[in-house]
Design a protein that fits this description.
With 123 residues, the chain is α+β, with helices and mostly antiparallel strands. The strands form four sheets. It has a two-stranded antiparallel ribbon with strand order 1-2. A two-stranded antiparallel ribbon has the order 3-4. The N terminus is likely disordered. InterPro entries: Znf_C2H2_sf, Znf_C2H2_type. One of its GO terms (molecular function) is RNA polymerase II cis-regulatory region sequence-specific DNA binding. Keywords: Membrane, Metal-binding, Nucleus, Repeat, Transmembrane, Transmembrane helix, Zinc, Zinc-finger.
């Protein structure tokens, strides 16, 4: 069976699109309805165009900026959280133990794994 005619999902790992990120693209997803599969019969140029489109969308949706401490490239939305890794500031504390963290999602993960018998945290 030649390239471009797969009938099962094909995973392609495309690295460094526009030098921005590593992404995984699922081609040939379910779509035939009633359990059928829609085969991918596109071209590699179509994949490249789709990845450029995704890269452009990501660039517009979350502009990146450099951390003034370490130079790491982070999204503007996550810059403050990233800075906390340098300052050691821990804003979020577990109500059931002495665990503290600077990232709310880490507190949720901690609470779910260490205190599964306690009610879910509401933040």
């Amino acid at each position: 069976m030649g390239l471009g005619s797969w009938s099962e999902p094909v995973f392609l790992v495309l690295q460094g699109v526009a030098g921005l990120f590593t992404d995984m693209v699922l081609l040939g997803v379910d779509g035939g309805g009633r359990g059928g599969r829609r085969a991918w019969s596109g071209s590699w140029e179509g994949v490249r165009q789709a990845m450029r489109h995704v890269a452009d969308d990501m660039r517009r949706a979350s502009p990146r900026t450099a951390c003034h401490i370490c130079g790491s490239s982070v999204s503007r939305a996550n810059l403050q959280r990233h800075i906390r890794t340098h300052t050691g500031e821990k804003l979020y504390g577990c109500p059931d133990c002495h665990y503290r963290t600077g990232d709310r999602s880490n507190l949720r993960r901690h609470h779910a794994s260490v205190h599964p018998d306690q009610p879910t945290l509401q933040m």
